Amino acid sequence: MDRKMRETLQKWWCILAFMLMLLRAESSFVDITYVQSAVAKGAVCLDGSPPAYHLDRGFGTGINNWLVHIEGGGWCNNVTTCLARKNNRLGSSKQMAKQIVFSGILSNKAKFNPDFYNWNRVKVRYCDGASFTGDVEAVNPVTKLHFRGARVFLAVMEDLLAKGMRNAENAILSGCSAGGLTAILHCDNFKALLPMGTKVKCFSDAGYFINTKDVSGAQHIEAFYHDVVTTHGSAKNLPRSCTLKMKPSLCFFPQYMAREIGTPLFIINAAYDSWQIKNILAPGVADPHGLWHNCKTDIVKCSVSQLQVMQGFRLEFLKALNGLGPSRSRGYFINSCYAHCQTEMQETWFRSDSPKLNDKTIARAVGDWFYDRSPFQRGDCPYPCDKTCHNRVFDPQEHSLE
Length: 402
What we know:
single chain, alpha/beta, Rossmann fold, ten-stranded mixed sheet, two-stranded antiparallel sheet, 13 helices
């Protein structure tokens, strides 16, 4: 090995060591808890294994406050795609890491998470593939797939209630991506499980998925959600106020059902949500020649015409946001970043260089809204005007997440 190569390697090792030190300083590692009692109730992951979560206990003034955060990870819409998840962490608790990092909204340090650092903070693992809405009694003897997400949600909540959540003074249901959708769909259910006097609100991070056509003109995401709801038997677990008026699969979209939610709800989303751009606006099936590949990898590589299409998507997103209704109990932080999930990472949740709207970080906006210090309903100017964004850049080899 020549000297130049050695120096390069040493440089990268130093950078890696620094990043690990920074990660440890800004975050903590939390052990997994398996809900073994759920198995007898049939409340299990796709492969039949028990549900799981990670709990970091609250302390001081936060000892009776609970933040329950739902993990994301897309959905499976048929037997084939669900079988593909059955043997990984998104379908089996056997494949989940025994310890995970808590940072951002889950951090236990006041300087990184000023309003929720000393709460009981929970991350619920996602292993059902339908945002915790499915419930099919029959289990196919060949595939052995279990579609039991709604039971899993209830079993995990009952376990947390028994561990002290039944005494909650303040409680939040939050989540990222498919977990953010869970936080919307189950918001009122979560409130109903808690005592009458508990202050309950819900946060959805990157969970406001919209029903719009892809670049080929097809209703790709609408058809996909229809298959998810059908495969998992989700219809009976979606808000009845919506399913009585329209097709159950449409009630998987927040724009059609969020208005009826009675519990206060805060939406955190990028108007150019990178998952939605990659999988709703320009999925692989709508782009057979890969013309959108570079643009989806890095927004600065988008052509003028592609940016025009994305500006149109932003307008569609803002229009769909009207589904929240005008209530003051709603809050939202909609920035014009190319990003997906901004509450779990320290750099986008609360740091000196974090994204801001009206000079507030997401953490400050959400904290002020939860504690009724001030309302927050802010959108952003169109890309590329927001210089506080942390825009995602993907590995060019990475495929879409469908």
